Every structure is written in structure tokens, then in C-alpha cells.
Amino acid sequence: MGRMDLEVVALEVPSMLAGLIVQTTLLEKIKSLQPADSNLQKVRLDIEGECSGDFTIDTDGMLRYRNRWCVPENKEVRKLILQEAHRSPYSVHPGETKMYQDLKMHYWWLGMKADIGRYVAQCLVCQQVKAECRFSEGKLQSLPVPVWKWEDISMDFVVRLPCSMGGHDAIWVVVDRLTKLVSDVGERAVLDPDVLREAEEKVRLARQRLLTAQSRQKSYADKCRRDLEFAVGDPVFLKVSPMRDVKRFGVREKLSPRYIGPYEVLEQIGAVAYRLALPPKLAKVHNVFHVSNLRKNVET
Ligand SMILES: [Zn+2]
């Protein structure tokens, strides 16, 4: 970080010679703006009244807090310091903790840590490139439990079997979601009251067990998930997970950004899906995405 205080300036001279001067521009700026900050000025007066605490004044007039330079309340200077520590050629977009550790060795101002957190959260490159190390978004949405058997079925085919005597080589499997019955063949007449009562009792038991199983599954699944909601019109990033030799959403290379966008949310579909306004180049992509594929765009 020591390099941050220096700036190399090339001087344009008419002859073949070029001159370089090294200016400690940032430090000079901090020092010159310190008197304009009323809080720092108050501290300076306290020091003169021998009530200094952790503050000291250098021989050249620079105010320090525990040997760190006191940065005055000036947007431009603070932005320059944050910019140099985060996105200059000497830095590689550090996270907020690393950046704070780097900066606190030399600089101090009230609310510095919060300012660093805000700056990193708003960095467009970090938002598009860095992976999120948090629980995935969108709580588990359990399906409604059917009221009666054979209301909700799933089906599958087992194919390429050896030919039977009747010339068949496949099996069609139909499963009822409530009772897990595999076939409706052999269902008894429902006009018999005893049979009807027995069926009702079985369905009630099956529903109760299905609800219990769903509740348990949801509580386990939601331990590693968190809620995230967007409003219509919010700008969001879309996860693309680029892989080698796989071209999705126009992104190819492995080191491409993990997120593209931002795109505007057009509408919410159900509890955990959103329709996005994709650009014309992605017109072939279905524009509804689960919330776990979206990331909030923190705007500056
Ligand atoms: Zn960044």
C-alpha cells in the first residue's frame, strides 16, 4: 500500500529529454483537506489543549490516529483511496475483510469499515465474477397433497425389453402420488359402503403421512436455503456457470463472468421464479428463472 502514496508524472518538455517527478499527491491532499473537516479540527484543538487520546500531530502538521493518517470527510479522497486499494493494477479486487486489513494499516476515518463494505458490494466486476459463498436462495416449495387417489399420477416407460409372447417389449408404469399404487387395475366397486369407508380411511392415512413426510423434507431442505425476493423492475444478474466447450447464454470461456446482466425483473412467477427482460441476443432462451439463479444487483 506504500505505493499508493506516489504518483509518477511524465513532463512534456520540448527537447528529447523527459522528466519524471514523484509526487506524494494523496498524502498532500489528505493533509491539506484535514483543516476543512470540522471533527478533525476539533480533535486538533483537543490535542493542543493536551487532551489528545489516541490522536497525534506530526511535525509537518499531519493529524494521525494511532499512527494512521486521518482521512478528512471528502468524497473524492476517500473514493480514490478505496479505488486504489480495490481495482488498481496493484490490487486484485480483494474482499471487504482483506481490503479493510490493508487500508487500516495506514488510513483511518470514522465508518471506514462500513464504507469499504459498501464499496466492495457495489463493485460491478466483483458482482459478476465472484461466486457467492452463501446458502442458495429459494425455500423448498412443497406440492399440494392430492385429496383423492389417482388425482395426481406419474408415469414412466421401461423399454427395450426382450419381446414377450404377445409381441410386447415395453412396460408402461403409472404410479399414484397419494397411495403409491402402481396400477388402477382391480379397483373394487365403490358402491359398497364398507369398501368406501375402508378406502376413505386409507386415503386419510396416506394424506396424513404424505404431509408429515413433506414437512420433514422441507425442514431439512430449508436449513441450507434462504429467502430472497425481488420486486418488478429490480435489476438482477443471471447465473451462467460457463464451462469449457459449452456455450450457454453466449458465454463460452471458463474464466468468463459467472453472472451476466443486469436485467430487469418483468414479473414474479409463483413463489420462487421470475421472468426477466433478456436482450435480443438471448431471445431463444426461455426467460423464466428460479431465484437461485439470480443475484441482486447492488447499484452505486
Ligand atoms: Zn471488485
TrEMBL record:
<feature type="domain" description="Tf2-1-like SH3-like">
    <location>
        <begin position="233"/>
        <end position="296"/>
    </location>
</feature>
<dbReference type="Pfam" id="PF24626">
    <property type="entry name" value="SH3_Tf2-1"/>
</dbReference>
<feature type="domain" description="Integrase zinc-binding">
    <location>
        <begin position="74"/>
        <end position="131"/>
    </location>
</feature>
<dbReference type="InterPro" id="IPR041588">
    <property type="entry name" value="Integrase_H2C2"/>
</dbReference>
<dbReference type="Pfam" id="PF17921">
    <property type="entry name" value="Integrase_H2C2"/>
</dbReference>
<dbReference type="InterPro" id="IPR056924">
    <property type="entry name" value="SH3_Tf2-1"/>
</dbReference>
<protein>
    <submittedName>
        <fullName>Uncharacterized protein LOC109714595</fullName>
    </submittedName>
</protein>
